[in-house]
Structures
1.
Amino acid sequence: GDSVTQMEGPVTLSEEAFLTINCTYTATGYPSLFWYVQYPGEGLQLLLKATKADDKGSNKGFEATYRKETTSFHLEKGSVQVSDSAVYFCALSPNTGNQFYFGTGTSLTVIP
Amino acid sequence: SAVISQKPSRDICQRGTSLTIQCQVDSQVTMMFWYRQQPGQSLTLIATANQGSEATYESGFVIDKFPISRPNLTFSTLTVSNMSPEDSSIYLCSALQEISKDTQYFGPGTRLTVL
């Protein structure tokens, strides 16, 4: 079945460091891919998405490219800030039916 | 995008009692869902709230424990019944809009602690 595998955390970086959080997926069809962010004490917010191969989603300096050949959707940011400290979830929608598949989440802490 | 609110935002409850969580969306949506997020864990889908009919539950979740209502296209409730400490979690409501049907929007969550 469809699934998402996400890089284990926690991740601790210094401010202005480069961030990569790995996400790979398994899907039988042509899913849409998402990154959600959960700030402390809050619900999930959509960070970015991509709906087809080679699409790049971007928002707030974060980027992720839908790579069908490697079944990946890695999240990157060139220079992280303390305010980026949160838990990041990779997710997949198979676009058939309503099921949404989430990764286990990666906790990011950015220190000044 | 849809803006989703939940009430209460948090609660502390006694074992054996029940709590009803409300979810309100600012626009009509096609689908509404309820998730549970246990401490330090990812999201687990509890059920799909169907408008005007019984909810569709995922494996491991039953109606007697988690009754759900959805009387219209913008509102749903989840009740956590006969609570035990194992029910301590964040409960999240989400929704799919017709216009962006592949994107789920989430409420801020209800943080439940059962003593």
2.
Amino acid sequence: GQSLEQPSEVTAVEGAIVQINCTYQTSGFYGLSWYQQHDGGAPTFLSYNALDGLEETGRFSSFLSRSDSYGYLLLQELQMKDSASYFCAVLGPGAGSYQLTFGKGTKLSVIP
Amino acid sequence: SQTIHQWPATLVQPVGSPLSLECTVEGTSNPNLYWYRQAAGRGLQLLFYSVGIGQISSEVPQNLSASRPQDRQFILSSKKLLLSDSGFYLCAWKGDSNQPQHFGDGTRLSIL
């Protein structure tokens, strides 16, 4: 099976940088995804890392180290609208072909 | 472009009543389809997935069922709702290989 660990809550100041870590234990691994979910909304896809290294998309970057079973989401130039829950999810075998297993989420609060 | 529609957005049902939630995908063919449930403040739990018409797999035994009568239609049902069925239900789709999953807007179900 799969298990993922990420902090439950993080608070950061507007304009700052925040890093949300995710460690995982898996019985099969294709890659690590990150999703953002605002209160009352559906998760929206942010990034996917299949290979080691850093992927950058605007203010958001995601990093993966397969040997360490570790990844992180980096948010730069934080804005108030970044306040949301962030989920890491492991893509692995299952569910017919590919299965996503989600962490419990990290609630990010951006303060002025 | 692909879109996913899920309805209703909110639903209040009495204990013991039936349930039918519908999800449709546009702009793609033969998608993998998923139903998740998210309890308040928690991660996403995979309930059902489908790789094709009439093909349903259940991840968690419970009083819910799913059906896929058409290629781009996925239905979540129950004959008799329990209080524990309350939650946020999300439909998701993905295409081939390791493409990300994309979620519908979700249905917030409250059981009274």
